[in-house]
């Protein structure tokens, strides 16, 4: 159904739409977040690194075009026919005045073979003017907007210091949906005080909101984050790789077929990773998920 996979992967979806390999290029647009610049707080989300959840993006000090050029030069030999989607990954990429946003997005779209934009942001950084701007990009390119919700649960919202409530997320998703802009929501697994029941509740909630895509990944404890300090004082249980693989397979089986799965495991910087160390071996986890799905004869949405 989805070529060699038992789930509806982003790779499959993009090949279907563009008829060729499409590669995401992560850039740092030089933005910040309301929970970092003092407008709502300082320090950001508890797990977030100083690079704003984008360890592999281009160099923030460089213009977007130079960041793209550097990354493409490394890929060109293997993927000479590839097209690109520019992923504004670090920090909140709709958190600036409209003129600045427009300049950054335009700079990305002007680059050769760029066929779309992926914009990561927060539920409270999508006001009417930003939605209006995004609508114009949605009309001229392939666009999706990612929101790092992580959990619908109040205690987790407070624990991660997200800085906005579920109603802001709901408002943002509904405005994006009304304008036919694709949405991707992030869900973090293994938050302290969450269990499988909580993950399923968050997942079902997101499905009801008619998201286009989803990213699932473990909570990463990275060096020099507030989560590292918390973990030293309040160590909490961390799933092992087998438990994670099994949980992901259970979740895949209740995700409707039309939802595009963008990520099943995270890939934080290896030098900064404190736990879970097994998550550094992304290939092992993805192979494990594929094997387990086959062993249990599960496919995306089969248990709905
Ligand atoms: S919103 Fe994203 S980038 Fe900003 S502090 Fe939270 S996790 Fe980091």
Question: How would you briefly describe this protein structure?
Answer:
The protein has 304 residues and is α/β, with parallel strands linked by helices.
Descriptive keywords:
TIM Barrel; single chain; 4Fe-4S; 304 residues; 37% helix; 7-stranded parallel sheet; two-stranded antiparallel sheet; alpha/beta; 10 helices; binds iron/sulfur cluster
Description:
The protein has ten helices and nine strands. The longest helix is centred in the C-terminal third of the chain and has 14 residues, at 282-295. It has a single domain (10-295), classed as Aldolase class I (TIM Barrel, Alpha-Beta Barrel), CATH 3.20.20.70. Helix content is 37%, strand content 17%. With 304 residues, the chain is α/β, with parallel strands linked by helices. A seven-stranded parallel beta sheet has the order 1-2-3-4-5-6-8, sandwiched between helices. Strands 7-9 form a two-stranded antiparallel ribbon. The two termini are 17 Å apart. Helix 9 packs across helix 10 (282-295). Bound molecules: iron/sulfur cluster (SF4). The site of iron/sulfur cluster has 12 residues, from loops. It holds the Pfam family Radical_SAM_C. This is Radical SAM core domain-containing protein. GO terms for molecular function: 4 iron, 4 sulfur cluster binding; catalytic activity; metal ion binding. Its cofactor is [4Fe-4S] cluster. Residues 15-257 form the Radical SAM core domain.
């Amino acid at each position: 159904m989805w070529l060699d996979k038992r789930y509806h992967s982003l790779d499959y979806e993009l090949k279907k739409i563009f008829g060729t390999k499409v590669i995401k290029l992560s850039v740092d647009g030089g933005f910040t977040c309301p929970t970092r610049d003092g407008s709502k707080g300082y320090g950001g989300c508890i797990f977030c690194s100083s690079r704003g959840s984008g360890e592999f993006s281009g160099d923030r000090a460089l213009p977007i075009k130079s960041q793209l050029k550097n990354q493409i030069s490394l890929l060109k030999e293997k993927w000479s026919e590839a097209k690109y989607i520019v992923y504004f990954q670090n920090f909140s990429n709709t958190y600036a005045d409209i003129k600045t946003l427009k300049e950054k997005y335009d700079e990305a779209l002007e680059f050769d073979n760029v066929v779309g934009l992926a914009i990561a942001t927060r539920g409270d950084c999508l006001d009417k003017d930003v939605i209006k701007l995004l609508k114009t990009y949605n009309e001229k390119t392939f666009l999706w907007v990612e929101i790092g919700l992580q959990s619908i649960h109040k205690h987790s919202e407070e624990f991660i210091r997200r800085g906005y409530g579920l109603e802001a997320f709901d408002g943002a998703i509904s405005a994006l949906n009304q304008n036919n802009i694709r949405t991707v929501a992030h869900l973090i697994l293994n938050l302290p005080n969450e269990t499988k029941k909580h993950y399923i509740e968050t997942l079902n909630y997101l499905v009801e909101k008619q998201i286009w895509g989803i990213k699932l990944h473990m909570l990463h404890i990275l060096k020099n984050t507030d989560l590292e300090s918390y973990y030293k004082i309040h160590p909490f249980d961390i799933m092992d790789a087998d438990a994670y693989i099994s949980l992901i397979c259970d979740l895949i089986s209740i995700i409707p077929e039309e939802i595009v799965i963008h990520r099943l495991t995270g890939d934080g910087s290896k030098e900064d990773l404190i736990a879970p160390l097994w998550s550094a071996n992304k290939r092992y986890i993805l192979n494990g998920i594929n094997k387990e799905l086959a062993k249990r004869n599960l496919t995306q949405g089969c248990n709905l």
